[in-house]
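Revision sheet: structure tokens.
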Amino acid sequence: MDAMSCRVRSVMLHRTAAVLPVAAMLVLGAAAARHKQVEDPLAPQSSQQPSYTISAASLGFAPPGEIYLGARYSLVSLDFLDEDRLLFTFRVPGLFHRDPSGTADEMERHVRAVVVHVPDGAVQAEALWTLHDYGRYVFILEGGKFALRDRDTLSLGDDSLALTPWLHFPGPLQYVEFDPSRQYLVTESTEASASHAKSSDIPSPSTAQASINADVSPTNQKQDTVLRILRSSSGQVMLVSHVHAAVHVPFNGEGYLETLRSRGISWMIQFDPFTGGATRAGLVDSVCAPRLDFISPKEYAATVCSSSGGPWFVAMTLDGRLLWQKPDSATTIWPLLLVSKSGTRLVRETVQATHAVNATAPLSPDDLIRQNVTVMDAATGKESLRAQASPIYDAGGNVAISPSGRRVAILRDGGVQIFDLPEAPPLPPSKP
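Predicted:
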């Protein structure tokens, strides 16, 4: 396990610099925070009409203020519990809570949650939650259940919207992600030293790992970023390690992917099983560090930057076979990926800007003109659906795909629009 911790820690330190730099270029200001609807004659229209539309206003939803555009806050979450039920949660206005000193908690928010039956829109359960930051907060599990993140706690919920405490961490959770099979989860939390941990907390790095974490000084230990891999069925901690910052971790139930610089703009993609014995999983050309995401346990996607400035989207198998690739415009930013539980379909969501973003051409909220949604077959890359989400939610949460991949829900034009799709082709078989 120590060796596995070392390997994961090494790749995490490498991946800290592997995020696309667009978010850092966003320029915010009170005057610029007003979003203008820009008519774009080249904007792609929906490739088909929705099968059903559920009025969002009838569920209590109202669009957020434009002041949030560009802040990358998670203000909404639209998720399928199963093929016929949606969990729709969204921020609602409310007063700030004040502590005994009279200070308002400006990160506190009230979130309305409703379970909606498809296609009739009947509300089967509803609740009001109080959360305390603006990060992603809902994660769908198996059997109609979900995890709710708030500060340092993950709670378990079901279709009744009753919540049960599940996992408590020694510090605020900055990152939570599940592998494609939902068997494991990765968490990254900012924590004080282990000596301040409570007995009910998830375990922290022990003194037995001091050699692994030798570069962490006592001063830095007061605010460590700690990575854990846990079994989602039991909460058992399989790995604990220090990282420099919360970063995206591409992993499945057997191991994780890392990018290694090769020659020029080439990057080698390597798969590192938790049991040891790394294997080559592909080679891509990119002028930025590629972002990797698993589509299924044996297929992954790489978002890369072409030498001409525009990003590309590449799908490959773990044995290094290129399945398909798609070019993208240099003016698309903040790509987000959703994958059906079956692994047969994926949804790619991007925000369209008025210009390419770079150090000499920063971004303001007025430059964001639409949010594109593209649904693709994982095996071939063929588009099954193309549409736009509205209003723009730059942190996502406004699109959902059902477990089978045959239904997609998009928050759009004042409603939750449901699109029924044909069955996707099967994934390619793995090499023997």
